[in-house]
Amino acid sequence: MKRLTSCCFTQRVPKTNSEHIHLESSNSRRNMGNSSKSNAAANGAQSESLEEDPKGAKSHSAVNIIQNHDFSGGLQSWHPNCCEAFVVSSDSSQCGCHFAVITNRKESWQGLEQDITSHISIGSTYSVHACVGVSDSPHGFADVQATLKLEYRNSDTSYLCIARKSISKERWEKLEGTFSLTTMPDRVIFYLEGPSPGVDLRIQSVVISCSSSTDSDCHKRGSTSSDDDNIIVNPQFEDGLNNWSGRGCKIVLHDSMADGKITPKSGKFFASATERTQSWNGIQQDITGKVKRKLAYEVTAVVRIFGNNVSSADVRSTLWVQAADLREQYIGISNVQATDKDWVLLQGKFLLNGSPSKVVVYLEGPPPGTDILVNSLIVKHAAKIPPSPLPVIENPAYGVNIIANSNLNNGTNGWFPLGNCNLSVANGSPHIIPPMARDSLGCHEPLSGRYIHVTNRTQTWMGPAQIITDKVKLYLTYQVSAWVRLGPGATTSQNVNVALGVDDQWVNGGQVEVADDRWHEIGGSFRIEKQPAKVMVYVQGPASGIDLMVAGLQIFPVCREARFKHLRRQIDKVRKRDVTLKFSGSGSGSLLGTLVKVRQTQNSFPFGSCLSRTNMDNEDFVDFFVKNFNWAVFGNELKWYWTEPQQGKFNYKDADEMVDFCTSHNIQARGHCIFWEVENTVQQWIRNLNKNDLSTAVQSRLTGLLTRYKGKFQHYDVNNEMLHGSFYQDRLGKDTRANMFKTAHQLDPSALLFVNDYHIEDGCDPRSSPERYIEQILDLQEQGAPVGGIGIQGHIDSPVGPVVCSALDKLGIMGLPIWFTELDVSSNNEFIRAEDLEVMLREAYAHPAVDGVMLWGFWELFMSRENAHLVNAEGELNEAGKKYLDLKEEWLSHAHGHIDDQGQFCFRGFQGSYQLDIITVSGKTSKTFVVDKGDEPLEITINL
For residue 743, what is the enclosing H or E element? Predict the structure, then answer.
């Protein structure tokens, strides 16, 4: 038995066997709570009568280890334990700004909890101050208790009572106590509980602070490191190589190398990982027990390389993690291109979702024979980066073209040839604005019909150019539009591109493939988020010797709000239905004038996200996921290289657990992916197979996967990215792709089979234009492939609505459901990221051909793109996350009114599930109903 010291200790003994079951399963079922703004509003008037204790917890000034202590972030970091909770925002000066209401409590132990494991240290004394209240108690008062739940891996869970107090109805009162731990549990969960079943518990604020008089730096000694705490021992090798070891190689201490040419960047010493025979060999340190779950850590190293005639190589920092069940995980932290000329800085972050039994950080990467030199390595709790402010853009001039002399009234003035090509002006180009620009600009003057004729092109990059440095504003999204045409001489398709040179970077403003002598539209977009010294726009692309013609080039900032207004109207048409509720049954004839309230509880449109197996170990991640998504897609765990990394050695454990997770939470799942056509994603043993063996392996993969998970996945991406790769087709023949679809359908007829590719929607990749995609789908169908859906990945930068919509319109003619399967947007500014996300979600939701949207993750450090997350690493919602939740709320319908003289109530609502309350003098009757997909008005009979 582990010893505990506190004001009060009780071993929780359940009253009945059923309560014991509740206690044992509380972790798995505690995410049942759901925030409800309508409930908050309904309870608001009653809540405002509560009186605040003037000595409430908010006055406590010590460092608080409770996250979101005053519920200003909603329920972020808090979890209802087998009950429901929501946050009320109040304008009452007595009551503060926010408080949590914990309701639908069936047992006295049900309440609100928070995991504080990573903020507690052994031997320190902690003070608890909570401002709490109760309501609806039949006795006028109720007991409220602060409790610690102490979980141990190899022994029973214990409960520690911190404080208990009898609280008067509708008053705020202070609950205070202290606790100290002499041993450290695997998990420490703080929660408030106590009132009888049916009595709502209310919490205004909670403060837990270290109060040890003999331990002034207990916060520093706790599991959360201060910004100056490096958990690496001997980080600059001042104590030789103590605490360091080689990972499959030898490590050596140096004060200099190469006849004194290599010296430490700082300090007196550096270390080398030498005699490396594998790329994963390097220098390592065991940091087990020093890193805590759900905390973000920053890794900083000073490195370089030496030897084997390698002047530049990739150096990576990696984390090796072993779980209690011996499952291994490798977490890539960061990488940098190191050289043999100078020291470079390697920086990155990581976060552990679970509680590992062993953790090792190491450096790897260069080819065998090349030494990794390390001057220092630091691993510390990552400092919180303040959010970037909302950009203030003065006079954005939406719709105004920043290209000078675009209509060529003044010849080629304002233009110059990039390279030694020649520019001239000719007549005969289209007078109408290209369609995508017209959708953004609306009514506009026609084009002049003049175009720039570029001749004497001796390089692909030669074409007309302008300097637009002073005209581009930071954080504005610009749409690019032009007509382009080729001169004679082209024997194959040619790419034409509107490009931007932003200092030393190349930015793609739009691209099109031209295969004939017609005028073609280029449509694209770009945004600049860092102040450049020079911005040049130019048109390039065809092979040397081919003339290029450019007409009506326009670059203009887009007004997103104007587009959003149009999309709101479109969404109303596409996603809503007129609904008539017809009341029948005994007593229905006397319902004239009866009040009814309609509240949508869930929108049926699929909104999902990418999920990894390790994410399931983080209850904060799980809580957000199950509340805000109804579909899931596995990031890697279903891919062939994961399920069979070596021939005949299968790993379905991760996917099995993820399927069970989705099933238990009523979440539908997409199967991503059966095959991946891009060669560098194919594991080496498959690449080594001859044609016959490869054909056998493909058949085995299909049979093994689809038989095992028959009926479990609603969709499959059959052969990922066939527009960008051809590994299987090149080796097995043109019909192999169609055969994959046919066989998959035979093995699991219930699943829709998708094509899936990227850059379909943004106009920047001619290989994956909508036209190319349609051509591929038609080719598969002609071979008998049962293509059931079109997947657009949606990894997009600076999205512009009409460009995205144009692609959807073109693909929509196929009559197949379209899904955004891997959507993410990226910006270093949270507000701009939120705008980009809103563009994509509104365009998708407004388009009748789109049947679902999957995000490619939402949690920082668990996404493939940087600056794309909605939730920060330690669980804080950012502006993009808030925008997502706001849109989800916007797309729920609520209505109230009275039953008319025909016994009906009419409203217009989104498709999904609803709750209906019929309120009479004798009480309230509740019913549920569903508004399904359809264009015609819907009549629903409500039997009373």
Answer: helix 736-747
Judge contact between 903 and 589, C-beta under 8 A.
yes
Measure CA 185 to chain center: 32
Closest by alpha carbon to 148, among 9, 21, 18, 14? 9
873 in the Ramachandran plot: left (φ > 0), alpha (ψ -120 to 50) or beta? alpha
CB contact at 8 A, 303 and 344:
yes
Joined tokens for residue 447: 């084009």
**Burial level of 750, CB count in 10 A (0-12/13-18/19+)?**
exposed
Confidence of residue 95 (pLDDT cuts 50, 70, 90): very low
Q: Which of 822, 830, 835, 843 is catalytic?
A: 822
Nearest to 62 by CA among 223, 212, 162: 212
- Rounded-to-integer distance, Cα 44 and Cα 36, Å: 12
Under a CB-based contact definition with an 8 Å cutoff, are residues 352 and 212 in contact?
no
Q: What is residue 569's DSSP assignment?
A: H
822 is catalytic: yes
CA 678 and chain centroid, separation: 24
Active site residue 721: yes
Per-residue pLDDT of 413-432, as tens digits, reads 999 999 999 999 999 999 99
Which of 107, 721, 874, 879 is an active site residue? 721
Residues 666 and 656: their CA atoms lie apart, in Å, by 15
Q: Which has the minimum average pLDDT: 27-31, 222-226, 407-411, 696-700? A: 27-31
Lookup: tokens for 878: 């950012």
End-to-end CA separation in angstroms for the chain: 57
Q: Number of H helices and number of E strands within the chain?
A: 17, 47
The identity of residue 251, as a single letter, is: I
CA distance 727 to 680: 9
Helix (H, G, I), strand (E, B) or coil at 769: coil
| pLDDT attached to residue 802 | 96
- The single-letter DSSP state of residue 902 is T
**Helix, strand, coil fractions of the chain, as percent rounded to 5:** 20, 35, 40
Q: Judge whether residue 605 has pLDDT over 90.
A: yes
User: CA–CA separation, 443 vs 433, rounded Å?
Assistant: 10
Is the distance from CB of 211 to CB of 178 less than 8 angstroms? yes
664: three-class secondary structure by DSSP: helix
Confidence at residue 158, expressed as pLDDT on a 0 to 100 scale = 87
754 neighbors 852 (Cβ within 8 angstroms): no
125-135 vs 173-181, strand pairing mode = antiparallel
Using CB atoms within 10 A of its CB, is residue 362 exposed (0-12), middle (13-18) or buried (19+)? buried
pLDDT at position 588: 63
Q: Which residues pair with 149 in a beta bridge?
A: 159, 189
Residue 594 clears pLDDT 70, i.e. is over it: yes
Task: Quote the distance between the C-alpha of residue 272 and its chain's center.
Answer: 38
Which residues, in sequence order, are bridge partners of residue 720? 676
Cα gap 280→270, rounded to integer Å: 20
Q: For the sheet containing 155-168, what is the strand order?
A: 79-80, 112-115, 187-193, 141-152, 155-168
How many whole angstroms from its chain centre is CA 419? 43
Strands of the sheet containing 463-467, edge to edge, are: 416-418, 463-467, 535-540, 494-502, 505-514
Given a cut of 60, whether residue 25 has pLDDT beyond it is no
Q: What sign results for the dihedral spanned by CA atoms 223, 225, 226, 232?
A: positive
Please confirm whether the linkage preceding 7 is cis (ω < 30° from 0). no
pLDDT band at 228 (very low <50, low <70, confident <90, very high): low
- Give 73's pLDDT tier (boundaries 50, 70, 90): confident
862 contacts: CB under 8 Å, gap ≥ 6? 351, 612, 615, 621, 869
**CA atoms within 13 A of residue 603's CA, in its CB half-sphere:** 25
pTM reported for the whole predicted model: 0.78
Q: Tokens in use for 258? A: 């190469």
Both tokens of residue 776? Answer: 């591929």
